[in-house]
Amino acid sequence: MSIILHIGRYFMLLRDTLSRPERVSLYWKRTVEEMDLLGVKSLGIVALLSVFMGAVITIQTSTNIDSAWIPSYVVGFTTRQSTILEFSPTIISLILAGKVGSNIAAEIGSMRVKEQIDALDIMGVNSAGYLILPKIVASVLMNPFLVMISMFLSIFGGWLAGVGTGIISTEAFIEGIQYDFDPFTVIYALIKTVVFAFIITTVSAYQGYYTSGGTREVGISSTRAVVYSDVVILIANYALTQLLLI
Amino acid sequence: MIEVQGLSKRFGTVQVLTDINAVFAKGQVNQIIGKSGSGKSVLAKCIVGLHKPEEGKVLYEGRSFHDMEAEDMRGIRQEIGMLFQGSALFDSMSVLENVMFPLKMFSAMARSEMEDRAHVCLKRVNILDKDALYPAELSGGMQKRVGIARAIAMNPKYLFCDEPNSGLDPQTSIVIDELIKELTEEFNTTTIVITHDMNSVMETGENIIFIHKGRMWWKGGREELLHSDNKELNEFIFASALMRQVKKAMIKNG
Q1: Is there a contact between A123 and B105 if contact means CB atoms under 8 Å apart?
Q2: Same domain, yes or no: B11 and B72
Q3: Segment A100-118 mean pLDDT
């Protein structure tokens, strides 16, 4: 199938997904469940990655700066900038595309091959809305929190590694993370996060929703969900950076 | 009553159904029979609106289903109960939640009323004390019965059963067949059963259409079925050893 057809079908699915819910209370209940599944249950991996990535950024920055002309607080400054601008919003979203995206595609794909989506359609339920909308809302609400937690833990991990290994003092690190701080960078990161959350859920749901065949095809859809979400995130990252920062 | 007029369906270049005309009567078990790949499931999916035919019409009480506005189409769908080949119960919901699901979506009942209605449906299909179990914890026969309970939860006017006996032992198959027949009479539904199980055809078939190579090859009642001189139909009916024995006995008894 050509890419034009996929894009057209993706937007038609979005139209169905975003149409008026039959029962708002039931959709909200599902949204809360999805917030737990897609958001709270991702906290562990996000925290672990953030602490270690912050630590690595600090050590690498420090080892690559060996000029006496560059003040030591630059290590803290670089850790903050790398974390807020790219690591937390983009890399964490790419990781979530792997964890959450594959989960969404596999769940919806299994429902498709087991005729559960047909059952919803025949009952008169808007299957796209019922299955996908709560996931979109949950991700769009939860991912910014995950990313803010990631920002904090990454900088904390950087401080821990920097001070722990003796490459920077606490004072210099704190001076660095406060130096020339522009609050808009956080807003920019959160805008990116919301857009990436939408991409992860909708691209993955699209792959799952149009699965046909059996369990093998569910696996293929799951892989495609991750790959396509990552590609679209990278393209969107470039576009948003150009739009918001230049 | 459901009427199919000149229905044709193709997927890409493959013509699956050609000019199907049929009437499915109310209060009867109507059956669509045919070999695997003959197009009977596609016909059923066209009738319930999961596939849109290229040509022809499906009329529910005289109203063309595929020409309706989306809201009206949803209204008709809420009057349809369907039992799927694989039951299609929602894995993440318990037995009780599965049966209550259509009520939660479309009725204004209080939770206690929904539970009462779900229990009535479950009792009707002889599933007792299994409320908290999940579909994976049920046998194939029980899953089918819960599927039927879910299908009748909204008091449907139309009941569709896609291969209701597939994967079931002969005894359980008879139980399911009898249940479908009883429910059809009890609720006066227009029931359409898609099957290739001749035992089921002989047990419950009242108004039968035979699909062969995407065309309607034959229609009639179960008595006429055994005496038909249609070559393709006879090949289908008497494919099993059991049915060949029946044929021999019929010839022997004149």
Answers
A1: yes
A2: yes
A3: 95
